[in-house]
Amino acid sequence: MEGLPGVVKKVRLPLEIRIDPYLMDHHIGGRAVLPAVEAMQLLAESTKTYLPHVDVTQIHDARFDKFFYADNVTENMETFNEIEVLKDGSINSKLLTKVKSPKTSITRTKGHVALGFGRSGDRFFPLPLDFVSALEGISIDVPSRELYRDLVPFGPAYHNVTDTLFISEKGAVAKVQGGDIAGATGPLGSPFPLDAAFHAACVWGQRYSGVVGFPVGFCNRLIINPTCQGENYIIRIIPGEAASRSLIFDIWIYDQNGIPHEKITGLQLRDVSGGKTRPPDWITNGVDDLHLGTINNHCLTLSLIELKTINGLAEKTLSDDEKERFRKMGSKRGRSYLGARLCCKSIFRQLSGNDRQTPASSITTVASDGIRPRCPVKEGNRHGFCSVSHDSRFAIAVAAEGQVGIDVEEISERVLKSQRFYIKEEERWVVHNSRLDQIEASLRVWTIKEAVSKALDMGLADAWERVLVREIGENKSSTEIDKKAYTAFHDTVDNHLFTVVNI
Question: What phi, psi does 91 have (nearest 5°)?
């Protein structure tokens, strides 16, 4: 125990826990449980009253050890906030209950929640808005109604993920609200946005780990601007590496203007049911099917965003040059443009050592002509070779050490209508004899020529003429550019074809 600051003072303060009706909506296994966010609020309020100088907006080393059953408060129960004042000025606070048996003289004391207040030497860096304004990866939609029906079956007071929750391997993003319960807001702000973020993390764990997790602690919580009742927020969940039996997450809460409100690091979720609670089949279906393994293996790095996950903060990520072009676009084209820019900014961060500090708006991802994409990197004035593409659902950017082109297209019959323009006579035989059907084979020809036109910065008509597809396969095709052989690589995701060509 060497190195730990000594205890200067310890006191137990009586703590009144008022069980308001809305708390009964937070139930597990048929019993109402005091939410972790409410317990933190109670301890913060009690500690702040006793020690007014303590900054309760900085919380560290939180543990949620035992459930406090809200339906079990009796006259035989005493509740305390046990406060320890440490030599370094920080504060430990614990929610304790003492229960006297009505039949015997035995008294039992339980520790439910433990927090540290007022210690943070970390310099605060906001999470750049490109992380919050959309979700990278191939995502699934979880409507709020289905979330609270099947995955987090709480009552209506805790239905604060208000729109569709988007989750992918990269995490989760959703709109949440500050609740409409009068009197619930305290020194830590409204408890409901963070509680909703816990729900989003729980859903991520159900899909990608098969675990129905419950919060058991976190490393740090910093409240920059307390959340408010009735206000709307955007949450971003970033998964970390699992530790022991816990799933680990970082959480950010932003408002609609891009102002950060809370940062939580090292949140731990764990199955507290002993394996009795399992996710429904529909949330785990297809989890191993959605990937871009082939293309990922043939480029330095890639970034993919589903356009539906883009929210209102995306425009705030644009640099001045990017804004200038964006202003001239309609809503549909503008959304695709935003997706492509966000992908390029992600490429910048990956090529710059997974940078999370550079503001998104300081990263310019268009070339000097205002049209072609660029993927800058921090060192010197070098720019990575990159290419972008988008269709009705996806935006994607790839980077490579040499010239590269990417194309994504929805698989549909319309590709057959214009075959006479882009398919040469000798390629018709290749399409006809492919093991793929005519639509998929033809679309591979189209996307190869589209990708080559981007890689070599040539007009599409030139690519139709100078590129000859020699062989078509599901994940790999052979092609010639000015009679020189190259290979194109393909992936298919949910009826969308991705093709990359490295020159």
Answer: -125, 135
* Domain 7-117 identical in fold to domain 129-284: yes
For residues 378 and 471, the answer to whether their CB atoms sit within 8 Å is: no
pTM for the structure as a whole: 0.93
Cα gap 454→463, rounded to integer Å = 9
β-pair partners for 497: 409, 492
**Cα 275 → chain centroid:** 26
What is 304-338 written as a DSSP string?
Answer: EEEGGG--TTGGGG--HHHHHHHTTS-HHHHHHHH
Helix (H, G, I), strand (E, B) or coil at 115: strand
If we measure between CA atoms, which residue out of 43, 193, 217, 194 comes closest to residue 118? 43
As a dihedral over the C-alpha atoms of residue 37, residue 41, residue 43, residue 49, rounded to 10 degrees, the angle is 170
* Per-position DSSP letters for 228-283, written without gaps between them: -TT-EEEEEEEE---BTTBEEEEEEEEETTS-EEEEEEEEEEE--STT-----HHH
In three-state form (DSSP H/G/I as H, E/B as E, the rest C), the secondary structure along 282-295 is HHHCCCCCCCCHHH
For 472, the token pair is 């078509």
For residues 163 and 158, give the distance between their C-alpha atoms in angstroms, rounded to a whole number.
14
Q: Annotate 167-187 with b (16+ C-beta within 10 A) or e (fewer).
A: bbebbbbbbbbbbebeebbbb
177: tokens are 């609200």
Task: Burial-class residue 314 by CB neighbours within 10 Å (0-12, 13-18, 19+).
Answer: buried
Domain 7-117: state its class: alpha beta
- Domain 129-284 classification at class level: alpha beta
Instruction: Please check the confidence at residue 54 and state whether its pLDDT lies above 90.
Output: yes
Distance, C-alpha 224 to centroid of its chain: 20
Q: Tell me: the pLDDT tens digits for 350-380?
A: 998 888 999 999 999 988 777 788 887 766 5
Question: Between the CA of residue 385 and those of 119, 336, 382, 404, what are the distances in Å?
Answer: 45, 21, 10, 7
pLDDT score of 1 more than 70: no
Looking at the domain that runs over 293-502, which CATH code has it been given?
A: 3.90.470.20
Q: How far is CA 17 from CA 43, 68, 81, 303, 322, in A?
A: 10, 11, 11, 48, 53
Per-residue tokens: 370: 């205002």
Instruction: Find out whether 445 and 431 touch, Cβ atoms under 8 Å.
Output: yes
> Tens digits of per-residue pLDDT, 18-48?
888 999 999 988 889 999 999 999 999 999 9
> By the 8 A CB rule, do 347 and 375 touch?
yes
Domain map (residue ranges) of the chain: 7-117, 129-284, 293-502
- DSSP labels, 160-207: -B-S-EEEETTEEEEEEE----TT--BTTB-SHHHHHHHHHHHHHHHH
Give the SS3 label for residue 113.
strand
Q: Give the Cα separation of 451 and 54 in Å (integer).
A: 59
List C-alpha distances in Å: 90 to 12, 219, 250, 441.
17, 15, 23, 66
